[in-house]
Amino acid sequence: MIQKYQFGAPFETDAVVKKLQSNKYPTQTIVNGTTKIILTEDKSHSFTWTYTLKDTDIVYGLGEANRGINKRGWIYKSWCTDDPVHTENKESLYGAHNFIMIYHPETPDSTFALFFDYPGKVTFDIGYTKTNELKIQIEDNNLYVYEITPDNSSPLTNIITQFRALIGQSYLPPRWAFGMGQSRWGYKNANDIRTVYQKYKQAGIPLDSIYLDIDYMVNYKDFTIDTQKFPSLKDLVLELKKDGVRLVPIIDAGVKIEENYDIYEEGKTHDFFCKRKDGTNFVAGVWPGKTHFPDFLNPEVRSWFGSKYKILTDEGIEGFWNDMNEPAIFYSEEGLSETFTKLKECEKENLDIKSFFQTRSLMHSISNNEKDYKRFYHKTTQGIICHDKLHNLFGYNMTRAAGEAFKTISPDKRLLMFSRSSYIGMHRYGGIWMGDNQSWWQHILLNLKMLPSLNMCGFLYTGADTGGFGGNTTRDLLLRWYALSIFTPLFRNHSALGTREQECYQFEQTNDFKSIVQLRYRLIPYLYSEYMKAALNNTMMFRPLTFDYPKDFRVLEIEDQLMLGNEIMIAPIYTQNTRGRYVYLPENMTKIVWQDGEILSTKSLTKGDNYIECDLNQVVFFIKGNAIIPLAPICNCTDKLDYSKLEILGEGASYELYTDNGFTTNPKKDGMIRILKNT
Ligand code: MIG
Question: Could you give the CA distance from residue 166 to residue 149 in angstroms, rounded to a whole number?
Answer without folding.
Answer: 13
